[in-house]
Design a protein that fits this description.
6-stranded antiparallel sheet; 121 residues; 2 helices; alpha+beta
């Protein structure tokens, strides 16, 4: 076996071991880890999705099982409406679990009137 083959096999073995490590923890440990992550996101300003704006305005959202943060909005009358997530130039039906307001646009450094109470042109 060449050194390159050995190195590749070692990398795959290490990756496989890492993949199995989380499964070996068991459901209780994984649920505790999930709860800690959820609480950590809430500490960072995320709120439960039931408290999101329901007036069609956009906000950021996180869906369970995803590492993405995407713009989203709620359409319809609560509780019979639905969430729509914007991603990759399209809208997708969504079931987010957390939300927070869209970040405010910061004035451009080239905008001389920004923050002076005057209208910019």
């Amino acid at each position: 076996m060449s050194e390159e083959e050995f190195s590749l096999r070692a990398m795959w073995a290490a990756a496989d071991k890492t993949a199995k490590d989380y499964r070996d923890k068991g459901e209780i440990a994984l649920l505790e880890q999930q709860f800690d992550a959820y609480q950590g996101l809430k500490a960072c300003g995320w709120k439960e999705i039931v408290y999101c704006p329901k007036d069609g305005s956009r906000f950021l959202s996180i869906e369970a099982g995803s590492t993405g943060v995407f713009p989203c909005y709620y359409q319809g009358e609560w509780p019979n409406g639905r969430w729509w997530t914007e991603a990759h130039g399209d809208l997708w039906p969504s079931s987010p679990i957390l939300w927070k307001p869209m970040p405010e646009a910061k004035p451009s450094p080239t905008d001389r009137n920004a923050g002076k109470g005057e209208e910019t042109k």
